[in-house]
Amino acid sequence: DGGPSVTVGGIDDFFIYDIANTLETPAIQAVKAEIFPNPADDRIQMVLQAGSTGTASLYDMLGRKVTEVNINQNATSYSINTKDMGAGQYNLVLQTNFSVQSSKIAILHN
To answer: Can you give the pLDDT at residue 9?
Structure first.
């Protein structure tokens, strides 16, 4: 028919890790951050691997960054206040020196 084709896809969660030696395939132990609760009401808690540095960014479903938390190697537990955010779906992206982790987060206010 000559009309444009449209491909629609989606990913809920993904995890990317970094391997220091690319010449061999070692047994990979993915160390994912703990993210809870989901759904969240007033805050999202995150527990990361010790020594992590980077950022935790929360995006709305239009791709706008809502908030960002800096991750430093001196702490393993972080939280994001969601009390004043609108209810709905968000995407949490944890980007550290060890990995990139993306998780869909629901915010529901009771």
So the answer is: 47
